[in-house]
Amino acid sequence: MAARPGRARELDRLAAEVSACRLCPRLVEWREAVAADPPLRYRGERYWARPVPGFGDPGAFLFVVGLAPAAHGGNRTGRVFTGDRSGDWLFAALHRAGFANQPTSVHPGDGLRLTGAYVSAVVKCAPPANKPTPAERDTCFPYLVRELELLQRVRVLVALGKFAWDGALAVLRRAGHEVPRPKPAFGHGAEIVVGPYTLVGCFHPSQQNTFTGKLTEDMIDAVFARARELGG
Known about the structure:
The structure is a single chain. This protein has one domain: Uracil-DNA Glycosylase, subunit E, CATH 3.40.470. The protein has eight helices and six strands. It has helices at residues 5-19, 25-36, 74-77, 85-96, 134-150, 162-174, 207-210, 217-231, and strands at 55-56, 62-66, 117-121, 156-160, 191-194, 197-202. Strands 1-3-2-4-6-5 form a six-stranded mixed beta sheet, sandwiched between helices. It is globular.
């Protein structure tokens, strides 16, 4: 069943608000500096150089949460996990699991559509060295809370990496749900039920993990197969 049109419009309004955010001076400076001096392979491209909102199906039951946009991925293209190697892995896996109509995500006009899934990140701006500060993370939390509130059919969250796992737990707590104590530890395939949601851990599809074999296609496919099973 499709989400109500009003819900999609609210997500669009939130995306516009996210895209205009300038609350974290260090991240604003970094994302714009990267765009002003790109590597040779991207010279001549116009970078998005703004915060990157979530993307996907307003009626999703699966919410995929990453760390932050990549400097030359989402920060360049304007769509989360788009135009970088991590996104290549993620969307290929979503395609194999039946959540995406194609296995690639190159730029916002490439025809990619998600069905039953929505993808976002804890921090919406590309951070230096992929390491947001705790203050930057906390400043960005309300956007993820609001995305979750608007995605009313979501029942499964997949956290890509420990940062996303910790962020997802914090967001669920901020949304008023009781998180077990001590805090559940992150692990690939780890599961925890929080309120009406099940949170599932997955190693981040970064080159550090995929090139070394720490994360394989079979491993990420198993996570999304489990997500589909949990989503009913």
